[in-house]
Amino acid sequence: MRFRIILALLSCLLLSPREGRAAEDALRVTLLGTGTPVPSPERFGYSTLVEAGDQKLLFDFGRGVTIRLAQRQIPFGSIDAHFLTHFHSDHLVGLPDLWLTGWLKPAYGARSAPMAIYGPPGLRKLTKGLTEAFMRDIEIRLADERNPEAGIAFDAHEILPGVAYERDGLRVSAFINDHGPLVVPSYGYKIEYRGHGVVLSGDTRYSEEVVRQAKGVDVLVHCVTVIPDELLKQFPAYQAIYQHLASPEDAGRVFAEARPKLAVYSHIGLNGTAREPDLVARTRSVYDGPLQVGRDLMSIEAGDVPKVVNPP
Ligand SMILES: [Zn+2]
Ligand SMILES: [Zn+2]
Question: Which of 174, 246, 270, 279 is the most exposed place for a label (fewest CB within 10 A)?
Answer without folding.
Answer: 270
